[in-house]
Each structure stands twice: as structure tokens, then as C-alpha cells.
């Protein structure tokens, strides 16, 4: 099983006193993901450095993709991505055959997909919303996810073995429409990292680093808006989409140039399907951004 040669800065983080939050913050700043606690990122780094697969589990918009991108940045490791859906098939994962002309002759060529590319290049593979895929599709890569790190390409009958540096990060939204529970054989191939909504100082830092909004008063208000939306989700008053950190960052970006309430309408409110949810979010925005 592959183990990574960690950059010096990550080695220092893993061996340093975990209370040194300033060092931690500076290390992850450029990755643009600030977890609720340093342990969340440290544990993910530790698992990947030992050659284990990581499953990021959390609500919609909690920053799982940004988390994966930050891990890719910290390891200085490019990342191939798979966006799961009910239409995900062997070709989407592994690649496909195509007709090519070479020296005037027609020949069949194989174009690698994200899984085989990541294995060949020894990079990260990111599988987003892995539980959106049909249960019969994912067993195609079971061998990739265990100690073998190999698969038999059904299109070429070639045995593909992952090169050093290959690793798998997946994300899951439990209970979301269109998802199915992961079977135990698949789930047992991952170390699970719970990803919560970013709040408080971490969110403030993320807004500062990731958006064009620089007004400190407005940033504080957006942090409070996020807190109110997350609480409303926990009470079942609005859908998880309304509390998406991704959507909040879009609203912050827009607020650098247009009024905040209009920015919230464009980035958050108008995405919601139910009128009562749109009215609820608009009411919170009206209270905060007078």
C-alpha cells in the first residue's frame, strides 16, 4: 500500500503541539478550507499519509469538496475527480474505447478515465457524492480501494496497478434525495471524517481569504447569517441547501459590489424550491442587513 512522502510543513504539523493554532491556520490558509477544529484536518492528513482512503461525511454545502482540494494542495498532489450520479458507469470511471487514425490506418484506442488516470499518474482520486452511484457500479473499483490498489480494465483486459502517491478521497451526503446507503464492504474500505458546517472565527477567516468582501462589519453579519441558517436547518425549517457554505461565500463575493440583501437573494434565497423557505431566509436577511 502506498505511503506518502509528506512535505516538511505537514510533518511539522503532525508532530507539533496541536494547540499551536496560529501555525495550523497559516499552513491551511492557502488551501481555503478552515475546519471546525485542527484535529479534523490532521486526522485526514494522517490517514492519507498511511495509504488509507478517506470518506468525508457531512451535510450539503459544508465544504467537503473544498476540504478535498485543500488536502490536494497540502500534499502538493493533483487530483482527478468523479462526479457520481445514477448514470455513473464503467466508462465514466475507467475510460472508453474510440476509433483513431494513425498513419492513415484506423485503429481502436483506449482513452483513460479519472480512476485509471489517477492510478497511472500516482495522484489523488476524488469521488464526489459516492452514494449517488448505483450499487452495482462501485464494485468495479473495489480492488482499487483495498490493499491491492489494482483493477482489471474490462475494456482492454489490462491489469492496472496504482503508482506511488495514489490515494482516494470520497464525499457522502447521507439521507439526501437520490442517495443510497453504502454497503458495508465499501464503507469498510474508508476512514470516515465527519465534516461539520464551518462557523465562528473559522468561517470569518474563510470569508476573508476566499471572497472579495473586506468590510469587517459585513463579514460579521454574514457569519451571524450562517449561524441562523444552520440553526434553522437543525430545526427542520429550511433545507440543507440554504445553509450551504459555498452559497454563503457567493453571497459574500457579490456583496463586495451589490447590496447584501440582493446578494443573499441571488446566491441563497432564489435557489430554494419552497416559497415558505424563501420567505424565511429573506426575513433573516432583512433583520440582519437593515
Q: Which features does this protein show?
A:
two-stranded antiparallel ribbon; 2 domains; 9 strands; single chain; Rossmann fold; 5-stranded parallel beta sheet; alpha/beta; 290 residues; 42% helix; 17% strand; 13 helices
What is the CATH superfamily classification of the largest domain?
Answer: P-loop containing nucleotide triphosphate hydrolases
Q: How far apart are the first and last residues' alpha carbons, in Å? A: 57 Å
The succession of helices and strands, N to C, reads HHHEHEHEEHEHEEEHEHHHHH
- The CATH architecture of the largest domain can be named as 3-Layer(aba) Sandwich
In the predicted model, the low-confidence regions spanning at least 5 consecutive residues are none
The percent range for strand residues is: 15-25%
What structural class do helix, strand and pairing data support?
alpha/beta
Total tally of structural domains: 2
For the sheet with most strands, the description reads: 5 strands, parallel
Radius of gyration, whole Å: 21 Å
Given the structure, what is the number of helices? 13
Helix percent reads 40-55%
Report on the structure:
Residues 53-190 form the ATPase dynein-related AAA domain. The protein has 290 residues and is of the alpha/beta class. The protein folds into two domains: 8-194, P-loop containing nucleotide triphosphate hydrolases (Rossmann fold); 200-288. The chain is built from 13 helices and nine strands. The chain has helices at residues 8-15, 21-28, 38-49, 64-74, 90-94, 114-121, 142-145, 184-187, 200-210, 216-234, 245-255, 260-267, 275-288, and strands at 53-57, 79-83, 95-102, 105-112, 124-128, 150-152, 159-161, 167-172, 190-194. A hairpin with a 6-residue loop joins β6 (150-152) and β7 (159-161). The longest helix is centred in the C-terminal third of the chain and has 19 residues, at 216-234. 35% of the residues are buried.
